[in-house]
Structure formats: C-alpha cells, structure tokens
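User: Hey, quick favor. My workstation is busy. Could you predict this chain's structure for me?
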Amino acid sequence: DKLEGRWYRQHELELAKAQRARKKKRVKAIHAKIKNQRKDALHKFSTEMVRQNAAIFVGDVASAKLVKTTMAKSTLDAGWAMLKTMLEQKSHQAGVVFEVVNEAYSTQTCSCCGVIPASSPKGRAGLRIREWTCSECGAVHDRDVNAAKNILAAGHRRLAAGIPAL
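Assistant: No problem, here it is.
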C-alpha cells in the first residue's frame, strides 16, 4: 500500500497568502489543519497496516540526510518518524512483529533478480527517477514498491535467521 502525503503542499498557497498578509491567527490555524490532516491519515494508514499484516518491516530511514536536499519540504511533510512510531506502538499492542531493517541499496537492487544493475537509480541524483527497468532481467520497477519488496525480503531473512530486533 502507498500513502500519498502532500498535506503541506495542498495548503501551501493559502498559507503563503496568510503569511504575506501577516495574519498570525490564520497562519496558526492553517498549520494546525495540516498537522491534524497528517496525523489523521497516518493513524488510519498505520491501523490498517497492523490490522492486515502479521509482520511489519520498516527501513531505517535517514530523513535527516534528505532534509538537506531540495526535497526537504516533501520529506518533512511525509511524517516518516510519526508513521514509524505509530506502527511500532500499534504493532506492539496487537502482537504483530515489528522490526527495523537496513534499507541500504533497497531502491537500487532489483527485487526480482537481486542484482544492482547499471540501469537502477543511484544516490541523491537518482531521487527524481521514480520508475526504472532492470538491465539484467528486464523487470520494470516503481522505485518505492521495489524498495518495499526488498525491505520485506530483508525482514523475512532476519526472522528466518533468528536475528533479534535492533
């Protein structure tokens, strides 16, 4: 499942107008609305994920590095830390396995053949590439879905090997 979180971006123009007009109460109200929409959507998404799955694996996202790029607003708007915390708490309450796994090269590795092909997106420069085709096996990948499959496979390997959670 994908969660499209663009709460800040939806209200960006309205917020800019209120800030230029120096309407502090309106700016505060818009920020509160964005916060509430983000929190509501993340609660609904995390509840559904815990309800539908017996094990949840998340990557050790280093959002601090992405905040220093041109994608800072989008990274902060996504609320990754909040979602991770909600998933962890709800998984613990429901008795669902929750583990954090190393997500290194998860977007670059082909989830079908397990190779890091030359055609895969590389580093920060490749962040804008959302779809790519594996030059080894010819599989077409959505960057996010491919990473999710690789993180899931890494989590299953951890469970099979009996490695405790971090």
